[in-house]
Design goal:
- The protein is elongated and about 75 Å long.
- The chain has one domain.
- The chain has 11 helices and no strands.
- With about 270 residues, it is mainly alpha-helical.
- The longest helix has about 45 residues.
């Protein structure tokens, strides 16, 4: 690392924890898989630039659908009046949507704050001792398998422009990508809307019917939605859509069945 002269006490604390913070930032972005190069045909990435938004939409609908379906079936299994089931379903929808939105906002916002803190420190180090930072960058490329001579020349060229140098150090040394952070407000809003959409599906039959017919209608409607969400996931994973749909149907259906049975065991229809 470069000279630490001129750093504030907060910057010194950040510098001591820089490796921990960079690992935290990587964890917040999600798990990274090691892929071994192998021969075979290459297909175009499904969705292109829309894959991030599509992924958020699919997962948001799925979370709302499975969680509220399970809640509604658990309450319905307890033998309560239809109005109670509706209240529970609406409460689950509202609480879940706000919880998901808050969680997404905090997650993305924290990720951005960690990124900004690490970038602030890295910018100071590049400005204070660019030669040491150039050597660090060259060592990174050597560890990646480039020759010493090529690594030195590449690091020298990248360090000529301060913005390029900072971006490269952030990516290569800290594992950070500003473009992949996203907006905390957009993440929160997307999660809120899509969770609401998913959570509303199992509630629909109870708004127009009651009793066994509502339970059966909710099971059928939710089953179709679960299969559809699972099949849509295959657009991102390139796995067979039928298998993906059936898997999601099995997982969501199992959760609903278990909570329905628990509700029946806790039957409160005879309690005043």
């Amino acid at each position: 690392m470069a000279s630490t002269s001129g750093l504030s006490p907060e910057d010194h604390r950040t510098r001591r924890r820089i490796h921990l913070l960079s690992r935290v930032a990587s964890r917040l972005r999600g798990r990274t898989w090691r892929v071994v190069p192998h021969p075979g045909p290459v297909t175009e990435q499904a969705g292109g630039g829309r894959s991030g938004a599509l992924r958020a939409a699919i997962f948001g609908v799925n979370d709302g659908l499975v969680s509220n379906l399970s809640l509604i079936f658990g309450v319905a299994g307890a033998g309560v009046k239809n109005g109670v089931v509706i209240v529970a379903g609406v409460a689950g929808l509202v609480a879940g949507a706000f919880s998901m939105a808050a969680g997404e906002y905090i997650s993305v916002r924290t990720q951005r704050e960690v990124y900004e803190r690490l970038i602030h420190l890295e910018a100071h180090e590049i400005g204070s001792d660019p030669e040491i930072e150039r050597q660090e960058l060259a060592e990174i490329y050597v560890r990646k398998g480039l020759s010493r001579d090529l690594s030195e020349r590449l690091a020298t060229e990248l360090m000529r422009d301060p913005e390029t140098a900072l971006e490269t150090h952030a990516r290569e040394e800290l594992g950070l990508d500003k473009e992949g952070l996203g907006s905390p407000f957009a993440a929160a809003g997307s999660s809120f809307v899509m969770f609401t959409v998913g959570a509303f599906v199992p509630l629909i039959p109870f708004l127009v019917s009651s009793g066994t017919s509502a339970v059966v209608g909710s099971a059928i409607l939710s089953g179709v939605a679960l299969f559809g969400v699972g099949a849509a996931m295959s657009y991102l994973t390139e796995r067979p859509w039928l298998l993906s749909g059936l898997r999601m149907l099995a997982v969501g259906g199992s959760a609903a069945a278990v909570t329905f049975l628990v509700g029946e065991l806790l039957n409160v229809s005879g309690i005043s």
